[in-house]
What we know:
This protein has one domain. Helix content is 79%, strand content 0%. It has nine helices and no strands.
Amino acid sequence: MYVIGLPPQQANATIRVGIFAMTMGALPTFLKKGHIKIQRDWLLVTSMTIGAILGIFTAVWVSNELFKEIFKYMFIIMLGLALFDTKSWLRKTGEQRNLPAPLIIILFLLVGFYGGFVQMGVGVFFLFVTVLGARYNLIDAGGLKLACVALYTPIAILVFAWHGLICWDLALAMSIGELIGGRLGAHFATTHPKAAFWAHRLLVIVLVAAIIRAFWPMP
Length: 219
């Protein structure tokens, strides 16, 4: 979005339409395969959604450039954790949490706020909190993320559209590819026996790309 000339605030709003399309493409498959469990996940979903709503309304009035400047350094830390703690990324979802429940709820509120405010990179932050803190496996964490995004993204679209921040022609064109990609990605993630292994490898690639983009942006 930035490359084709949209201002950061408008780009931040426009991508929400494509993200919602991708979520709607993937969510039914994760639900059908049992990777989203309401009884287990409702508190985390609620916490993130509350944080996201606060972030959405903040994004209407405040530039997200400061957040992006601060959080780019966190990508380096997360890359280190992804590379040197591989066992945690490939385990099954466990009942015991690595962190106390109140701290996990606070972290989900913060990740939700970031997602509502900036969106870019929120999936990476979400996976780290969910896998390393709440002890979900990568596939269940992906399902939980979809449930959260499905709840708060329509609110973001309504708020940003009301303020005239969405470039609809780009948003709708992008949504077609996002919908197809979400559907295909969900099928792979929920059926391939080594889906968690490849998801971890993809996470490392995404982190490397994010670091390069953050510190050496395109002119």
